[in-house]
Amino acid sequence: MTDKPMDPQAAPRSLPVGSRSDDLELAQRVIQPIPPDSVPVMEAVNISKGFGATTALVDVSLKAYQGRILALLGDNGAGKSTLIKILSGVFPPDQGELRFQGEPVRFANPGEARQRGVATVFQDLAVCELLSVTRNIVLGREPQKGVGPFKFLDLKRADTMARSALHKLGVRWERGLDERGINISGGERQSLAIARAMFFGSALLILDEPTSALAVRQAGRVLEHIAKARDDGQAVILITHNFRHALSVADDLTVLAQGRVAGHFRRDEIELDDLTDLVARVA
Ligand SMILES: Nc1ncnc2c1ncn2[C@@H]1O[C@H](COP(=O)(O)OP(=O)(O)OP(=O)(O)O)[C@@H](O)[C@H]1O
Fold it and tell me: Which residue positions does the secretion signal occupy (predicted)?
């Protein structure tokens, strides 16, 4: 098995149709139907957004459910980043509504979205480079000891929490927990960020291109961790333009093209060739 890097700029339709990457299986899992009465953790309803003369999103709707991975797919410029910025409180939509756990919601900022249980891992900001592995995992909820104003980090408890978070995700961390973020690989960074979201029980985990800059083997490991977060009960939105990665873990797929929804599918309704054709047709 080689650890060759993938081309992060590769457009999905440049993938050789029907070929297989080294270690990613487009597994034919049994996909459960969504129970008719279940309420999405996050629902976007007819969202539109423009930037001056540029129309980024037109009437886009999607639903992300607990215990399911929704892959949000689309070519460069399709509107994926704009949509997740709206879902995670970076800016509001011009039109349309977000519903979080059934209730209309308007996040004032990303901090508010985070407090409500929306954990977003942006590609380049997965970890703080100057903080240790432990500090990265407990970030924002550091256990403290001491009395009155003399409080400081309870490092022993923090290490225990970090170890437990990594264990829950199935990460075998063989180096020190005091390793700085700057010294760990891209794949490990994504996995740490997933561990943090899982450990603090976010309801929705949004991952922005978590595998795009990774070598094949690392990408496979990160996809396993994403599947684990789903199996742990989180709703996951996975943004990618790698169809293989999406098909290997997703339960549901939403395809964007030129700011509009080109289709919603359940994983067992669509194959790689169909996705490739669809994007080639609408791009
Ligand atoms: N801040 C902004 N100002 C002006 N135009 C923007 C801004 N952000 C996005 N756009 C435009 O909106 C459209 C959608 O961009 P967006 O980044 O959401 O697409 P994307 O699917 O995430 O693409 P990529 O995969 O290349 O990141 C593009 O035409 C883009 O140029």
Answer: none
Q: Do 69 and 193 have their domain in common?
A: yes
Q: Are residues 146 and 101 in the same domain?
A: no
- ipTM score of complex: 0.95
Q: What is the DSSP string of 111-164?
A: HHHHHHTEEEE-GGGSS-TTSBHHHHHHTTS--EEEETTEEEE-HHHHHHHHHH
> How many DSSP H helices and E strands does the chain contain?
8, 12
Task: Find which of 13-22, 27-36, 61-70, 110-119 is predicted with most confidence, using mean pLDDT.
Answer: 61-70
74 lines ligand 1 (CB under 6 A): yes
Atom in ligand 1 nearest the alpha carbon of residue 209: 25
pLDDT in tens, 188-206: 888 888 888 877 778 999 9
Q: Where does residue 237 fall: left (phi above 0), alpha (psi -120 to 50 degrees), or beta otherwise? A: beta
Report the nearest atom of ligand 1 relative to the CA of 78.
21
85 in contact with ligand 1, CB cutoff 6 A: no
**Widest CA span of the chain, in angstroms?**
64
Determine the distance separating the centroid of ligand 1 and the alpha carbon of 259, expressed in angstroms.
Answer: 9
As a 3-state breakdown, the chain gives helix, strand, coil percent values, each rounded to 5, of 35, 25, 40
Q: Which of 233, 231, 239 is nearest to 206 (CA)?
A: 239
Statement to judge: residues 113 and 205 lie in one domain: yes
Identity at 198, one-letter amino acid code:
M
Does ligand 1 come within 6 angstroms of the Cβ of 54?
A: yes
Count of domains observed in the chain: 2
Which is nearest to 171 in space by CA: 195, 152, 200, 149? 195
- Give the C-alpha distances (Å, rounded to integers) separating 107 from 65, 113, 260: 19, 6, 23
Which amino acid residue places its CA nearest to atom 12 of ligand 1? 56
* Tens digit of each residue's pLDDT (9 = 90 or more) over 243-261: 888 999 999 999 999 999 9
